[in-house]
Write a structure and sequence with these properties.
The chain is of the alpha/beta class. It has a domain of 179 residues: P-loop containing nucleotide triphosphate hydrolases (Rossmann fold, 3-Layer(aba) Sandwich), CATH 3.40.50. 40% of the residues lie in helices and 25% in strands. A hairpin with a 3-residue loop joins strand 4 and strand 5. The longest helix is centred in the middle third of the chain and has 20 residues. The protein binds adenosine-5'-triphosphate. Adenosine-5'-triphosphate binds next to strand 2 and helix 1. The site of adenosine-5'-triphosphate (ATP) has 11 residues, from strand 2 and helix 1.
Length: 260
């Protein structure tokens, strides 16, 4: 079953064709790697998928809880559709604690209304208590529980990236978009991240699309890899197929293939 279908998608910035006529379907439960050289259009693709940019032409359709089409995509609505995202430049509330960063993620999906919160009705307290318990569980899974009272800005870089993913999960997404989750991580942190991503796919029944330059991570966890170049989708296949694709090796992978 597909969860995302992209049809003839293009995005121009003035004369720059950042995304050129992309067609792709993403299957439920897969981990998809999005790779390609700098400027290939990967982040623009994420920004289109999350409604930050509107396409110059083409269609994006999600098949999540309900069918969502391009015209419905607005950044502030994305979370409610079951789509969560992390950013290349980590976006945390840096002067808040680790725990509060997660609790904010939970608030994005609270069902009680503003009136209930204002009047402090039982539904408000129940939701708050649940969020607290769930936040602690999530932090434990991410090995961040002993840092729950630290300010986000004081965490090492690798932990900040993990915290951003944990916060995204608090919104209970069906589709998770990760923009360079291993950037700035050392090899040990990257290996831990690999296990974490595999675990969250199972535990949260997720579909994951990740942009990543770390080929060992991509080739080890992805079910399918998409290769972008100059805004085009130039190759699509299993990690093995991609690593043996002459065109991809020439354009992008080069020597890196040997190291995987
Ligand atoms: P990287 O790996 O370096 O993050 P990328 O594959 O994510 O690169 P994009 O950031 O999507 O590539 O950029 C694709 C092209 O679109 C580039 O030529 C970039 O300069 C251009 N571009 C992206 N956003 C804008 C914008 N808001 N205005 C003008 N040009 C843009």
């Amino acid at each position: 079953m597909w969860v995302l279908s992209v049809n003839s998608l293009s995005k121009n910035f003035g004369g720059i064709k950042a995304i050129r006529n992309i067609n792709v379907n993403i299957e439920k439960g897969n981990i998809i790697g999005l790779i390609g050289p700098n400027g290939a259009g990967k982040t623009t693709f994420f920004n289109l998928l999350t409604g930050i940019y509107s396409p110059t032409s083409g269609e994006i359709t999600y098949n999540l809880d309900s069918k969502i089409r391009t015209k419905d995509l607005k950044p502030h609505k994305i979370v409610h559709y079951g789509i969560a995202r992390t950013f290349q430049n980590i976006r945390l509330f840096k002067d808040m604690t680790v725990l509060d960063n997660i609790l904010i993620g939970f608030h994005n999906r609270f069902k009680y209304g503003i009136g209930s919160a204002f009047l402090r009705l039982p539904s408000y307290y129940k939701a708050e208590a649940n969020a607290y318990e769930n936040a602690l569980e999530l932090l434990e899974k991410f090995n961040l529980l002993d840092k729950k009272d630290e300010l986000a800005k004081n965490l090492p870089y690798g932990d900040q990236r993990k915290l951003e993913i944990a916060r995204a999960l608090a919104a209970k997404p069906k589709l998770l978009l990760l923009d360079e989750p291993a950037a700035g991580m050392n090899p040990i942190e990257t290996k831990e991240l690999r296990e974490l991503i595999n675990w969250i796919r199972e535990a949260f029944d997720l579909t994951i699309i990740l942009i990543e330059h770390d080929m060992s991570l991509v080739m080890n966890i992805c079910d399918e890899v998409l290769v972008f170049d100059y805004g085009n989708l130039v190759a699509q296949g299993t990690p093995e197929e991609i690593q043996n694709d002459e065109r991809v090796i020439k354009a992008y992978l080069g020597e890196e293939v040997e190291e995987c």
